[in-house]
Amino acid sequence: QVQLVESGGGLVQPGGSLRLSCVASGSMFRIYAMGWYRQAPGKRRELVATISSAGSTNYADSVKGRFTISRDNDKQSVYLQMNSLKPEDTAVYYCQMQGNYWGQGTQVTVSS
Q1: Distance between CA atoms of residues 77 and 43, nearest Å
Q2: How far is CA 83 from its chain centroid?
Q3: Is the pLDDT of residue 28 over 90?
Q4: CA dist list (Å): 47 to 26, 39, 94
Q5: What percent of the chain has pLDDT over 70?
Q6: Chain segment 78-101, per-residue pLDDT in tens
Q7: pLDDT averaged over the chain?
Q8: Which among 107, 95, 84, 109 is positioned nearest to 37, based on CA atoms?
Q9: What gap in Å lies between CA 109 and CA 86, rounded to an integer?
Q10: How far apart are CA 82 and CA 67, in angstroms?
Q11: Which backbone phi and psi does 5 adopt, to 5 degrees?
Q12: CB 69 within 8 A of CB 88
């Protein structure tokens, strides 16, 4: 049984930074791609960033140059470093593992 647990969300001012973490249970982490998605109120869930098992990354255009996804296979964790945050980044952020496994989400609010 795969479980994903996110942490690191919170309230931050525009221009600030946050680092999200996601810890995975199970034995397949190191061979699966991982991703971060987000869903703002009244909007569809959207891709933020993905990272393959080999470490190749992909980003939504809206976060390129500001967000960085990384993974630590020994800790079975994936991270999302978010810099230069904007109010439009406000959303619930979800960790996802290849195979359609999802975490419970962590709220990120960017507001002054």
Answers
A1: 27
A2: 13
A3: no
A4: 23, 9, 10
A5: 100
A6: 999 999 999 999 999 999 999 899
A7: 96
A8: 95
A9: 9
A10: 4
A11: -125, 115
A12: no
